[in-house]
Amino acid sequence: MPEERFLLSSYFLDQQTLLQIGRLLHVHEATVSRKLKRLTTNLRKQLLRNLQSGGLSKRAAEEALGTDPRDVELNIRRLLQNSQSGSFSNKTGHTEPDQR
Amino acid sequence: MSDLLQPGQHPDADHLNAFIEDALPLHERQHTLAHLAMCPHCREIVYLSQSASLSESLEPQTIVTRKAWFSGWNMWPVAAVLAGAFIFTIYLHNTRIKNNKNTVATTAELQRTAPPLPAALPVPPSVQRPVQPMPGLTQPPSKRPTVSAPVITSSASSGADGGSINGASQPQSIDVLPLRDRSATFLLHPGTAPSTASTHGYRSAHDSRDGATNAANLAQQKSINTSLQSDQTGVSPESPFNPQYQAPATSPLMASTTSAAVGVNQTVEIAQATPRVDGTALIRPRAMKDTPTLPSRLPVLSIVSNVRRSLAIDTSGTLFFSKDGTSWQPIESQWTGRAVKVRLASFSLSSQQPSAKEADSHNASPGRVMSMRGATLSTHPFVFELTTDAGGVWTSIDGQTWKQK
Questions:
Q1: Given B59, B182, B263, B342, which residue has the most CB atoms within 10 angstroms?
Q2: Measuring CA to CA, how many Å separate A41 from each of A11, B39, B105, B185, B354?
Q3: Which of 37-96 (A) contact B at CB < 8 A?
Q4: Residues A17, A52 share a domain
Q5: CA gyration radius for chain A?
């Protein structure tokens, strides 16, 4: 959804406040907060399913999600910004060499 | 995606402004959001423009111009009404001042032209009656009402005996005695003869409030007493008929009966007591100040005293007699039983008229009999009455000789 992507990019990438995001979307900041909470939860579940479907166990998938992003050699900003065409998993192979 | 937002192209400023103002249709808004989610440059522009629009929108809100509550009113009619009322008030004020000036001028002119008023109308004699002082007496100004012109009755004002002190028809002003005052004492004045005894009661100078009045009365009294020295025959110094005798503890009843006993008709204002012709008031029992000590050293059971004699009964029933109140002598029992009570009984004029013999025996002192208005009045208005424990009642005149009643 374009609005969900806008919320995630504005909050996590641009470090905008809930108030600013709510004013731009003409909704209350609490609404923005609930939407962000629901999105993150859904993303986590989706990642777990993807990891489990990729061959990891549930525990291994949870440990992988609990990993500190600073220890992961991924440029999440670039991935998110350049994820218009194709899924996130398809882009990961192309971007890693650029990060390095 | 719309044609304007192709991949790699950014929306123009108007489009972003429309997005910020929420003026884009829904599908264009979705395309713009999808672009903003992927384009950090456009997001930065959107947030900067949003903050600028917010600051512009907040500035006019902070400046609040407060207007007066009456700013919306149209003040001209109100001001016109007030001005008209003010002018009308001034006009009324000036009109009243002119009217007052005209009235004052007219009144002054009438006073100048009017004839002088006649002399004051004579006051009716009934209203202008002067208060003339009573001849013979210099009555000091006193707030108390006075009784004027006592009229001597036929028995007292016959003129043949000349026993009246002030004359039969001489007007006299007598102070109305404050009969409520129990501390007042009276000087009793006997007449020249028993048949025409004229006794006047005067208040002594004990009352300091009426010092001037009492001084005048005493001076007059002294002159009267001097003229009556020759007429005072057979009256003991302690007798109530002595001119210098001062009856103790005079009551209002005493005052009324004193003036009535001499046969003088006076109009006396009596506040509470009812006047009563009673010879018993001539001598009142003297109050014993303290209980005497009897020779038997027993406590006093009953005690009574008149002017000169005192009787007391101790607890053993012995009767004691005393003339001065200090030396007591026992009285032999002349009655049966034990004496328990002694008191002074009133002497009944109708029932106990003393005989001529008894009157002669008491003629010297104090058993004198005087006649008043055809009735015989003894100077022993009180007799001692003794009550025994058996109920017997014994009477005595002198306190020493007792007879059963």
A1: B342
A2: 15, 24, 109, 125, 144
A3: 81, 83-84
A4: yes
A5: 15
B326-374 per-position pLDDT tens digit: 888 888 888 888 888 888 887 654 444 444 444 444 444 444 434 334 3
Find the Cα–Cα–Cα–Cα dihedral B22, B28, B30, B33, rounded to 10°: -70
DSSP one-letter code for B282: G
pLDDT value at residue B53: 74
> Which residues of chain B have a CB within 8 Å of the CB of A16?
47
Q: How far is A1 from chain B (nearest CA, A)?
A: 8
* Structural domain total, chain A: 2
Same-domain pairing of A52 and A73: no
Phi, psi (5° rounding) for residue B35?
A: -70, -40
Q: How many CB pairs under 8 A join A and B?
A: 46
Q: Is B40 helix (H, G, I), strand (E, B) or coil?
A: helix
- Nearest-Cα distance to chain A for B35, in Å, is 8
Same domain, A99 and A71: yes
B44 near A CB under 8 A: yes
Least CA distance to A6: which residue of chain B? B37
ipTM: 0.71
Q: A-chain residues within 8 Å CB-CB of B44? A: 14
Query: Which pLDDT score is estimated for B359?
Result: 41
Task: Write out the two tokens for B187.
Answer: 């000087």
Question: In terms of residue numbers, what domain contains A19?
Answer: 1-58
d(CA B322, CA B248): 19
3-state secondary structure string, A46-71? HHHHHHHHCCCCHHHHHHHHCCCHHH
